[in-house]
Specification:
This protein is of the alpha+beta class and about 325 residues long. The chain folds into 2 domains: about 30-230, Jelly Rolls, CATH 2.60.120; about 265-320. It has 3 helices and 14 strands. The strands form 3 sheets. Strands 1, 3, 5, 8, 9, 11, 12 and 13 form an 8-stranded antiparallel β-sheet that branches. A 4-stranded antiparallel β-sheet has the order 4-10-6-7. A two-stranded parallel sheet has the order 2-14. The termini are far apart.
Length: about 325
C-alpha cells in the first residue's frame, strides 16, 4: 500500500476524545446514497488538516443521518504516519464554513472487530460502519461533508479506504481528487413512527442510553455485497437525486454498437430490394403479353373487314 502524501507544516493534534452526544432515536432506517466501485490496489486516508480531511455526498432522502459505511481495512498498527483513531463531525454545503452537525468517532480496534465479525482479517478489506451521534438532518438535494477533526497519537493520517476514479459518483467526491470517490453507503432514519396515527408507536430501534446500544462487534452483522473492481475508468453511476453539480459535467459518450449488430442491420433492407425488383418485371411481362393479344385481335378484325368489303363489292356488281 502506498503511503499518503506528506503533510507539510501540519498542526499535529493530541489524543482524540470520544464524542459525547447520544445516538439518534429512529424508527426506520433506509439506505440513501452509495458508490460501490473501487480501483484495485489503491487506498486513501483521512487527515485532520483542512482540505485533506473530508468526503462529500448529496442526500436523496429527508431524515436523520444515522451511519456512513466505508469500504476498507485497518491501517498499520505501528507507524509514524497513522494514528489509532479519529473523530469528527458533519458539515452542510461547505467543508470549511458550513454549520457543524453531530459527532462521530472510529478507532482501529473497532475496524478490526467489525472485520472479524465479517470473517475477515485486519489486512482484508470489508465494510466499516461509522455511527453518527446527535441529530444530523438530511435534506434531499443538499450536499454534506464527513469531516475528520482529530487523529489520535499525534499522527497525521488514519484509515486505509478504497476509492474509485473517473467520477463514478456525481453527487460528491473525496478530498484527494475531484474525480475520486470513496466506496461508501449512507443511511437515513425517520425520527417519528409512520404508524403512530393508526396504532401505538413501538419503541425506537436506538436509545439515548449508550448501555442499551449493542456494540457493532457483538451484534449480528448483515453481510453486504462487496463492491466491484473498476474496469479501466469504470462505469458512470446515475445519481439517486436531482441536484446541480458544483462543477459542470460533460455529457456521456454514446455507447458503440457491437459489430454483430452492425452486420445484422443491412440484411432486411437487402431482402426488400430484391422483392421490389422482381414485381415490376412480372408486370411488364404481363403487360407485353396483353398488348400482343390485343394487336393480333385488331389485325384479324381489320383483315376480316377488308375481306368482307371485297366480297360485297364483287357480289353487288355481279348482281347488277
Amino acid at each position: 500500500m502506498e503511503l499518503p502524501p506528506v503533510i507539510e507544516k501540519a498542526e499535529i493534534s493530541g489524543k482524540a476524545t470520544k464524542p459525547t452526544a447520544n445516538f439518534p432515536k429512529v424508527y426506520i432506517e433506509e439506505l440513501d446514497q452509495s458508490q460501490e466501485f473501487f480501483k484495485e490496489q489503491h487506498e486513501t486516508s483521512f487527515s485532520h488538516v483542512p482540505s485533506k480531511n473530508w468526503m462529500s455526498f448529496t442526500a436523496g432522502k429527508n431524515g436523520i443521518l444515522t451511519k456512513i459505511l466505508l469500504f476498507g481495512k485497518a491501517n498499520y498498527l505501528i507507524s509514524e504516519h497513522y494514528g489509532s483513531g479519529m473523530k469528527g463531525f458533519v458539515r452542510e454545503n461547505n467543508p470549511d464554513k458550513g454549520p457543524k452537525l453531530g459527532e462521530w468517532s472510529l478507532s482501529r480496534d473497532e475496524i478490526v472487530n467489525q472485520l472479524s465479525a465479517q470473517g475477515l482479517m485486519e489486512t482484508q478489506a470489508g465494510w466499516i460502519t461509522i455511527r453518527m451521534r446527535g441529530e444530523i438532518p438530511q435534506e434531499s438535494g443538499k450536499t454534506y461533508f464527513l469531516i475528520c477533526q482529530e487523529i489520535s497519537d499525534g499522527r497525521p493520517w488514519f484509515g486505509a479506504f478504497a476509492f474509485s476514479e473517473g467520477n463514478t459518483y456525481l453527487g460528491g467526491r473525496h478530498w484527494l481528487h475531484p474525480k475520486h470517490d470513496l466506496v461508501f453507503r449512507t443511511y437515513v432514519g425517520k425520527v417519528s413512527d409512520p404508524a403512530q396515527n393508526q396504532q401505538k408507536s413501538p419503541s425506537p430501534n436506538t436509545s439515548s442510553d449508550d448501555a442499551d446500544i449493542p456494540s457493532v462487534a457483538n451484534s449480528t452483522v448483515i453481510q453486504l455485497p462487496p463492491p466491484q473492481p473498476m474496469l479501466e475508468d469504470g462505469p458512470r453511476i446515475t445519481p439517486t437525486v436531482n441536484y446541480k453539480p458544483a462543477v459542470e459535467v460533460k455529457d456521456k459518450k454514446s455507447v458503440p454498437v457491437p459489430a454483430a449488430e452492425k452486420k445484422a442491420e443491412p440484411v432486411e433492407p437487402k431482402t426488400k430490394k430484391k422483392t421490389t425488383a422482381v414485381s415490376p418485371v412480372v408486370e411488364n411481362i404481363e403487360t407485353e403479353s396483353v398488348s400482343k393479344e390485343e394487336a393480333t385481335k385488331q389485325d384479324r378484325e381489320v383483315e376480316s373487314s377488308q375481306n368482307n368489303s371485297l366480297f360485297d363489292r364483287l357480289f353487288k356488281k355481279d348482281a347488277k
